[in-house]
Amino acid sequence: MVDATFISRAPFMDFKVESGVGYGVIATTRDGLGLATVIVRRGQIEALAQRIRERYAIELPRGNYRAEVHGVAFAGVGPETWLASCEQGGNRFAVSLRKEIGALASISDQSDGYAVLRLTGTKLRDTLAKLVPIDIHPRAFKPGDVASTVAAHVGVTLWRLHDAADDTPLFDIAVFRSFAGSFWRALYESAAEFGFVTA
Questions:
Q1: Using 50, 70 and 90 to split pLDDT, how confident is the model at 121?
Q2: Roughly what angle, to the nearest 10 degrees, separates helices 92-101 and 45-56?
Q3: Looking at the 3D structure of the chain, how many domains does it have?
Q4: pTM, whole model, 2 decimals?
Q5: CATH number for position 161
């Protein structure tokens, strides 16, 4: 019998990290982020909203929107379905969610299932326009907005954060970990003409 030892690896490890000239797009990996899918149980939507309000001081979004308080966020990704995230905790986040709201919703840990990038830069929207079939103009896609869509034929969930201090747009984008390589190559090639770097 073979003794197999599993070693934790960052999802975007060993990929090319610079392309072109300049800093049009800057990518930062979000390793260690706690992620979980939350699906409300039948007839429990009001009770779930109340519990989340009490435990996290968050108004549960009803639609494709993301609300965050003190590093915990709930992003609407489907009918009565949210992608919950926590800046710290990794897999422990789903465990804590089950304790707090497990009687009202089904919780599925996604911390190791998704790879998440934070993207910014003066040419980020030009790059994303090559990848996603949705309107990400600031008038159409505002801070807090969430979209489940595709990027270069890879399923993604992206949400817009408040702009950076220098007024450049700021987005997080989540992709299933098994597609991280395909998404990275598409992003890398789409951003090359503007200059692509990792922070």
A1: very high
A2: 120
A3: 2
A4: 0.89
A5: 3.30.1360.120
